[in-house]
Amino acid sequence: MVITVEQVRSLTRTLPRTSEHLIRDQVKFRVGSIVYVAFSRDETVMGFAFPKEERAALIESEPEKFHLPRESDMRFNWVHAWTAALDEPEMRELVMDAWRMVVPKKVATARLGTP
């Protein structure tokens, strides 16, 4: 099953402070000016906020699913996933974790409960 922008949009609509933007033909979801999920133009890749220090382990664990962003984005807390390789529960977890990284802790706790 391929994860779609619409599935992610349905989830992000429930997340406080999220806004959706179309930037250079790419759908991006952000809190303030910080992007936490973005899709490639052809929607085959979903990029998402992810701790830099854990990125290598994630990619090594499932290289057919996850890969590094382009070199210019390596300075950010960011990873890419093939949308065709993700299932909905995994997408939900990745998006929620990415959102949690960019909102104040009190906002995340109000939405998700105690971490």
From TrEMBL:
It comes from the Bacteria. InterPro entries: YjbR-like_sf, YjbR/MT2646/Rv2570-like. This is MmcQ/YjbR family DNA-binding protein. GO terms for molecular function: DNA binding. The keyword DNA-binding applies. Keywords: DNA-binding.
